Structures
1.
Amino acid sequence: MTYVRKGFGLRAEVQELLAADYTGHLVDLLTSRDYTLTAGDVTIRLAREFGFCYGVDRAVDYAYQTRAKFPDRRIFLVGEIIHNPHVNTRLDEMGIRFLLPTTLPDGRTGFDFSDVTAEDVVLIPAFGVTIGDFETLRALGCVLVDTTCGSVLNVWKRVDSYARDGLTALIHGKFYHEETRATASQVQKHAGGTYIVVRDMTEARIVCDYIEGRGDRAAFLERFAKAISPGFDPDRDLRRIGVANQTTMLARESLAIGEEVGRAMERAHGAEYRREHFRTFDTICSATQDRQDAIVELLREPLDVMLVIGGYNSSNTMSLAALCAEKVATYHVEDARCIDPERGTIRHKPVGAAGEAECAGWLSAPGPLRIGVTAGASTPNNKIGEAVALIFATRGIDAAAVA
């Protein structure tokens, strides 16, 4: 097996193609004008941290480098490189084959690597892969190009240390998310390693109730059936806990969950027990934190509408939308194509909703209007720029005149 984690030294060769695919003129204009553009009765305010983060930029760059390095070989990608439909579509157009989760012969949901041979190249996405999937790919002897984000690796190290020291890893995340599945699998490095995944504070409080002796074992195991390690025993495995999180969750909730679980441990067993048998660390990635902080800052201004751009399955984008929705009318769109200037409508995913909704007249209020814009860490600048242009167009303003 050939294992590559630092690219192929082809950044210069693919830079022009990357720039053509993902650079946005209007975004460059916004940043050069103090993140503000005004035309007619519309002012656009762009959050000061937005879009591609370092880890996403690196993953996409390595995917392009891999195609350039192996123009004639089959290249497979485990899942999606990042959660952005435009980026993944572009990789598909480049001939990169996507291995999507499926039902395996044993009934589990996972990736089928039966078509991969030693002659092939396999890209590991920014989210990483489970230990089991990595070992399967290594045994195949293919070329492995690992784009796992460094922030994700830091969480893995934390979870590994918990399992090594006999603590259950309590992970704030989505049990079905690629990153969380990969993170949870790190406990497998140690015999008897255990984990439990909680989606939000509601689920965390169910865990806290059990720690304090108020839970029903059968109900607990049913509730968390898909979110616990095999053989998980809440009576045994909730006595020593280390808290970690999916790197793209809402930071303040992750911190609050850690504190809530710690207090439950203390109420159940005492302060000294908590000090010895409980750990928590903020493992939200810096880019996620920076984008959330930038939104908090922007929301201090008077805004009429907030537009959040990014994949509907992008956790960091959903966290941004949730923050915005607390303060102002918020529209989370997957892509600029969700905005229809001619009809004056927008297709968007309301916070907490399962699917899209369509809203008419979302920008029909009398002017002037101040519209905030941000984007998840997997959204390229050109898609942000396209959305800004369509905001202006919805108000009858030609974006070309803005320049």
2.
Amino acid sequence: MPFKRFHNDARKTVLLAWDNAKRLGADQVGSEHLLLAMLDADDNVARRVLERHGLTYDTAYDLIRRMGAGPELDAQALEAIGIDLEAVRDKLEAVFGKGVLDTPRPRGRRRSFGHDARKTLELSLRESIALRSNAISTGHILLGLIRADDGAARVLRQAGIDPQALREEITAAL
């Protein structure tokens, strides 16, 4: 997809998606990394709308980390012997930074856009055309993300956000 149609905020979102995928140890950039990038970027229309619905970067990051954390230790078994797994993770992240316990990507492997991220970006172009916009903005990426209904849409639902209400609000903002 040619990025010349992307507004500066959307270009920055795509670049930040790479950083977020790396931070989470993902081999591919997914739609959830695009969602994080919108919340990670400077002020943009998608971030403002998402934050009005109560979704912050930290909340989304934690939801995504938990969704893709892989096999986890049995938290109940650890709790039975007096270990609060979430408290340990929170303390380590407070001292060493977000994602300190996330599995790093093996060296030498290239990160690429996964199917759901490519689908989201393609749908953002379609949303931009449907709204007769000259460029793709973060708002269009968010609309594409909602329409794709994959990993990032699952994060939105877990955060208690109604995708249809979000769609209506972002469309009005554009």
3.
Amino acid sequence: MSDERDTGGERDVRWIMEVLPHRYPFLLVDRVLELVPGKRAVAIKNVTANEEFFQGHFPGHPVMPGVLLIEGMAQTGGILALHDRPDRLDKLVYFAGIERARFRRPVVPGDQVRFEVEVLVARQSFSKLSCRALVDGKVAAEAVLSSATVDR
């Protein structure tokens, strides 16, 4: 029986930074747990109390902004789109659309967010992904994201 999963196993943040151009404080993926080329990716973000956005969102009641959950899902999708492209250093992945975004529960310091991304449509320069952000197995956010891959 053949396994469709990428044989590289888990990927750490050093590998992620080889694939994505994002850097602190905007890199929102800490580790890739699963990567099935052209089909699926699972990654995590460890949410800590010292995240810069908690200073203003909200003082005394820290909640991770929903737009950053969307961004984390998108970065996971970017990893899926770019990881095996030999020309990835010459490409960027831009948002092309966000559909059916829903926020189900707040994400707070101490949570570990699991980003699950599945390919709905994949072309050389366009993709559409079904995405979920989960904490403790419960959906915190979900959306269908579209992206365009362009030259840098």
